[in-house]
Amino acid sequence: MDSPHASTQALYENLSLASRKFVADVLGSLSAEQRLASTEIFKALTASLAQDNERWAEIQRRYYQHHLELWMRFAARSDATHAAAASPPPAPVAVPDRGDRRFHAPEWQQLPFFDYLKQTYLINSRWQAEIVEAVQLDARAKHKLRFFTRQLVDAAAPANFPATNPEVLKLAAETNGESMLHGLENLTADLRKGRISTTDESAFEVGRNLAITPGAVVYENELIQLIQYGPATATVYARPLVMVPPCINKYYILDLRPENSFVRYTVEQGHTVYMVSWRNVTEDMGHITWDEYLEKGVLKAIEVAREICGVGQINVLGFCVGGTLLAAALAVLSAKLRDPVSSVTYLTTMLDFSDAGDISVFVDEAYVTQREKDFARGGVLHGKELALTFSSLRPNDLIWNYVVNNYLKGRKPEAFDLLYWNADSTNLPGAMFVYYVRNTYLENNLRVPGKLTNCGVKIDLPRIKLPTFVLASREDHIVPWKSAYQTTQLVGGEVEFVLAASGHIAGVINPASQQRRHYWLHPGLPANPDDWLAAARERPGSWWSRWSGWLAGHGGASVPARTELGNTRYPVTELAPGRYVRQRCD
Known about the structure:
This protein is an alpha/beta fold.
């Protein structure tokens, strides 16, 4: 076994390598034109500050004042320590933001040197943020500057380095360097995998303790498998529910462990549920288009579910990108004067991409044009690239937190089903991806009536006149809740809007049985989402119960539950969860 000193040196060297690789990967996701534009933004920053000397001087004055106060308090604290005084430490100059877990350990407050490091970092980071906010740039350029500045600031936190993290040093001393050795082993394993481990992956397996709601595959093509779940009640609503999950992830986010499975809950409420399981596409499938995702995916699932259940109309639900696909498919049906759907539910879905949040930092004309060239002859967007982009939106939670835990402290991440699913990324066809990002994130064409043609017809979202349930999550970093709210202003029909607490995933996966969190309701739908929130009332518990009551009103008559899945035309081919969901990118 290596000595602790050798293990520590190897850990430092490999951490440096991993950090450089992470930065290179993030920058590598930008085109050459984007990198040049970023350089121009920083030049504009310098010029703007030079033109506003008074404001710059005031920012600098406060910055130096805070550092002077910190130094004086640190010096006074050192004198008190030498004098063996029992007085408490002076009030801090800078304290972490609420929810910032990086400096929770008592050593960050109790040990003067590390308290000084922490406060120095906080003063510096807020100074940099203030400079960014003061600069005169257009909104898009400032958004980019703000985002990339935050990336650098988060990466530079003293908690991320062995020599400046007191928790890491204490643990290394207590274990005689064993924690460093384990950290090196964890880092080596992750470098081999090409991604940071965020959960104990040995604790989960699709089909063993995830995605185990009883059901069977009743249809498949090159793009989807359609799963029908068995009944959990003696009678069911006549109209089934088809769920369309995001195609950039596996469907089992909606069917995790039994205690937090949205699918199981819905089945237990008396609904016949069908699930679209998207194919994790391979290199030879890079030609598949957006229209094929509508025709072979969403529209085919609706057709099969109607035929098996023998009903004229069904209910549908879309989650995230699945909801965007679903809306386009419903617009196709509306344009063709077909009426197979009774109601629609959108979970954390964007149809209006005017404000797409931090993801828009990566998407501009230069990026999309380059990707169109990359995929002109096929090819796929690999799931790891998407995963890196999403992780960079919350680097402290999804990157640096695990760098500290796994590599600096040498610990294994805890078992967490949501994070296991998050690491199970999927590939997308290049042709479909570039159409999607150009017409949504870049040009926001989907919301414009008649702008897009899908499946041979013009898309017009206001013509979708269906009872609609729209869910947004207040802390969503992927689909900003105010953007999700805009769906209420786009579609026709009666709309109910619910705002859940928490983020993109935790806001959705909130089991009713646990009575956790809360949500907001208001019957009015003003144009401004801030006006809606000002008038909304908070309700305790999960939004699932509210939605279940709403969906029951569109389920139709109560009929005896079918004991056989599928039918003669669509027989069972294999048990759930099926083959497609088990195909991994690793």
